[in-house]
Amino acid sequence: MNRPFRVYLAGKITKNGWRCKIAPRYRSVSDTEAFYDSELELETITPEVVMSGPFAISCDHGCFRGDGSHGIGGFANGYKCDGAVDLPDDVRWRRVRAFEINERRLERADAVFAYLDGPNPTGTVFELGHAWKAGKPIFLAFAPDIPRNDFWYPAEAADEVVTVNDVEGAWGRFADSDDSFLARRFAGTAGGFLPRRGWTRISLREPPLNLDNIDAANVDLYPGH
To answer: Quick one: angle between helices 91-108 and 122-133, nearest 10?
Structure first.
């Protein structure tokens, strides 16, 4: 694999959100790139690892942020950023386009890093299902105030599930340590990361759940985390 390792960063899109800490050039993405370039990649803080999506329109007004917008939604107080004047005003067009191009970006990814730090991450839940169906390795991290048991079903799609204090800590466990998620599943080479032969999806919960002897009313679905 003579190319960087591609990671899709799943999670809520917000103004000046956590992706800016992982991919420092995230805010430099133009409206044209966000909507039309399915092969766009940005360097992350980890060498040889790039972000393959999703991308949103950057502005300090928050024009394209908010519930149901996915970073490409309506215009705040009737204001429309100059950089987006050539985009169709039709909300339906923007939503369909965002869905289609980000699904392509997810398909191009080698792995998925998901960080849940806010309410109602419905788009992220869908992306986790898509990634699981596509056979992508999935690392799922929760912020401390997110009730993990509320997300037990999509968490079953993940290969590793953790709770961390911040996104930097989550990314460190995913990519930036000798015992990281990527280090344990992929062999680093001068030309990038190569999937280990014979990779299979396994549960990393310690200890594993005993489904034959379980108190459904009081079970901790993620012991040790």
So the answer is: 40
